[in-house]
Amino acid sequence: MSKAFIQYKGNNAGILEETDEGYEFRYNQEYLSDAAAKPVSLTLPLSEKPYKSSVLFPFFDGLIPEGWLLDVALRNTDISELDRFSLLLLCCKDCIGAVSVIPINDDSDE
Questions:
Q1: What's the pLDDT at 106?
Q2: Which of 51, 80, 91, 100 would be a feasible disulfide site paired with 25, CB 3.0-4.6 Å?
Q3: For the whole model, what pTM was predicted?
Q4: pLDDT tens, residue by residue, 18-59
């Protein structure tokens, strides 16, 4: 399944993963141990427990562009508009705000 590093202001905050059951977001232990750590979203407070959802977390879905910018992304790829996780990986490496989504290659080690 697909995975991505979730960065907050350039720091690796956690990993978002597409699973057979849906999606899982887990903060990195190193990030949690930093006294200055902030949650990536108010809906995903700092926690050692993983967050699980059957649908893509609304915060991450909200990072995906809309309108003409989404149309450009869809025109230049074979990704379906319904494949929200693939769109997140494609479009949100350098999005506006403090959070970035960096795809993890299947053959890379964590």
A1: 67
A2: 51
A3: 0.88
A4: 999 999 999 999 999 999 999 999 999 999 999 999 999 999
Alpha carbons 11 and 26: distance in angstroms, whole number: 14
Instruction: With a cut of 70, say whether residue 110 has pLDDT above it.
Output: no
Q: Give a three-class secondary structure readout of the chain.
A: CCEEEEEECCEEEEEEEECCCCEEEEECHHHHHCCCCCCCECCECCCCCCEEECCCCHHHHCCCCCHHHHHHHHHCCCCCCCCHHHHHHHHCCCCCCCEEEEEECCCCCC
| DSSP symbols for 14-42 | EEEEE-SSSEEEEE-HHHHH-TT---SBT
